[in-house]
Amino acid sequence: MTADSHEAAPTGRGTAYREAAPAREVRTIAHLVMDLAVRQQSLSAGTSWVWAERAGRSPTSKELSNSGFEGSCWLEGPSGARNLLLLLPGLGDKPASLARLAESMALPETSALALRAPVALPAGLDGYMWYNSFTAEGELLQADSLEITRTRERLCRLLTMLESCGWPSHRTFLMGYMQGGLVALDLALHFHSRLGGVVSVCAHQDDVKVEEAASAIQTPLLIVASTECPKQLSSAQRLCRRIHEQGGHVRLSEIQGSSIRSEREMRPLMEFFAENLELHCAMLQNDPSIVRVQ
């Protein structure tokens, strides 16, 4: 592969994004997200609030297998968690590393599901991919539109199953890395209703077909691109312009390497989740006029 490639070569150790932010820094996310969210919420005098929807449950192994995501890792959130974060790994990687990242992030009132990509790597290599990505000679292929469509349909079936478990799409978030970021963006642009939000990290955005997107792009998007790869960054900038032209809400955040490694680089993600997670504001919980439905 060339220096402009956006995926690491598959190995037993997975892709480059495994170098996540140090745990000491990432553990501050839950507190910062809650603090930012609380600042954005206010009460009107005499307002009465009702929590009408219950928290979801964890999907069973059979449900995940029937949806095509056997081997995925579930991380239970705090009691009463109302949001769900789906983590989509890059080419060649496994869900365990993303499960550790989700555990370190500890987003407030959020459970997480680190997905195992549905297609095993060829030639007995250890790892998975979201769609067939190699020629018979082992050369990396560009994303095929038919393969992307099949992957999107698989993810739609997963979301339907998760909704039956109590996780509606408007409280379901996707965070994908590299190839996983590509399919997460594609789903957001074509899904029939609003998702909670989608974060795409170091994906190959030229393979995202905005022109074929739904008439109204409803899902908030955050695209993270590396300044060390000018081709990736310029591709992300073009994609953001195209999404804006179609009325979508998207932000671009820049990082220096192939993964998020500092609190400064993590800050845009904190702000994104703070704005879009559905949280029980402390001000509301302490208001005697609230009726909470269990």
Automatic annotation (TrEMBL):
This is Phospholipase/carboxylesterase/thioesterase domain-containing protein. Gene3D superfamilies: alpha/beta hydrolase. One of its GO terms (cellular component) is cytoplasm. GO terms for molecular function: carboxylic ester hydrolase activity; palmitoyl-(protein) hydrolase activity. Belongs to the AB hydrolase superfamily. AB hydrolase 2 family. Residues 81-221 form the Phospholipase/carboxylesterase/thioesterase domain. It comes from Prymnesium parvum (Toxic golden alga). Residues 1-20 are annotated as: Disordered.
